[in-house]
Amino acid sequence: MQFSAAQIAVLINGRVEGNADTQVGSFGKIEEAAEGQLSFLANPKYEDYLYSTSASIIIVNESLQLRQPVTTTLIRVSDAYSAFATLLSKYQEMKTMQLVGRQEPCYVSPSASIGEGVFIGAFTYIGENVTIGNQAKIYPNTYIGNNVSIGDRSIIHPGVKIYFDCKIGHQVTIHAGTVIGSDGFGFAPQPDGSFKKVPQIGNVVIEDRVEIGANATIDRATIGSTIIRSGAKLDNLLQIAHNVEVGNNTVIAAQVGVSGSTKIGKNVMIGGQAGIVGHISIADGSKINGQSGVSKSIKEPNTSVTGSPAYDYTSALRSQALSRNLPEMEKRLKELEQMIKQILAERTAI
To answer: What's the CA gap between 173 and 154, in Å, rounded?
Structure first.
């Protein structure tokens, strides 16, 4: 499909600078884009490519001051990165909307309710009393257990497993290999040293506009629900344990582990490989640095922490600065000790 600069500008609320009739049919990085492609410039480090790129259209910030003339058509917007993301989302939506119907072989229970414009890929299993909303896309090799509900325009990528009774909201994206609703890690220690399994009879509730990366696991609650609130974004290879709650618009990077019954507030940012113990709370707006170990509640909103055990980010930076100076401080301390010994020796001699 071909789109003109004028059409694209309408989609992203931009202003065309150059030939509004310029056509593009694909995307490219600004440093290697070819004629007929669209790109964007958000990072000033790449500005030099703006004057040499072969791209036909470039999305740029309204505030950008050109250092020299350009041959490409520009679309100026308030935020080039966000505008480009919006455009990519619309492009992807157009592609996925073309997928409609049911591939064979697959199994769909007679009691399942399937909305309009749904795609169901081959080798998919859809259990009893499942509800799938309008224009949802279920890619091949997916398992959807009994009594699961999936909202309108949600996308379930290949190999996802959604256990019984779980609830998936509208416009949710779950990437390949992720497991939703597997048992929480509940075992009661016995007098003989063995462990008795505690049945996990709750579910997982994923609200609207959540995105979950590939090969993540979100455990069902022991009782009640493990909840991922609207707008949250979860990366690949995560472990979210039973009865955890992740707040609205919280983002969690890859390889994070969150232990059971922890409550994470809204607009929290958690860096990769961080670990969070169970039964604590993380205040709204908190920032947890990558590889941090959070062992107690963060009660003050908008707090930044790092380290293991995690503590205040600014204090941690000061401690790191002091640690780097320890070898020099040790050297000076030895010199002072030597000086004191020499002074004492001289006094004794007198």
So the answer is: 6
Q: Are 21 and 5 in contact (CB under 8 A)?
A: yes
> HSE-up of 29 (CA within 13 Å, CB side)?
4
CATH topology of domain 3-97: 3.40.1390
Catalytic, 242? Answer yes
Q: Are 121 and 104 in contact (CB under 8 A)?
A: no
Longest Cα separation, the chain: 106
Tokens of 106: 């697959």
Q: CA–CA separation, 57 vs 88, rounded Å?
A: 14
Q: For residues 290, 295, 297 and 301, what is the CA-based torsion angle, rounded to 10 degrees?
A: -20
In contact, 275 and 293? CB cutoff 8 Å: yes
Antiparallel, parallel or unpaired: β 263-264 and 245-246: parallel
Can you give the pLDDT of all 350 residues of the chain as single tens digits?
789 999 999 999 999 999 999 999 999 999 999 999 999 999 999 999 999 999 999 999 999 999 999 999 999 999 999 999 999 888 887 777 778 999 999 999 999 999 999 999 999 999 999 999 999 999 999 999 999 999 999 999 999 999 999 999 999 999 999 999 999 999 999 999 999 999 999 999 999 999 999 999 999 999 999 999 999 999 999 999 999 999 999 999 999 999 999 999 999 999 999 999 999 999 999 999 999 999 999 999 999 999 888 767 677 677 777 778 888 888 888 888 888 888 888 777 76
- Encoded tokens for 254: 């890859």
Q: Between 3.40.50.1370, 2.160.10.10, 3.90.1150.10, 3.10.290.10, what CATH number should domain 160-309 receive?
A: 2.160.10.10
Give the C-alpha separation, 21 to 201, whole Å: 59
pTM of the model: 0.82
Nearest to 229 by CA among 166, 169, 300, 153: 169
Query: Which residue of the set 157, 170, 175, 242 is catalytic?
Result: 242
Structure letter (DSSP) for residue 184:
P
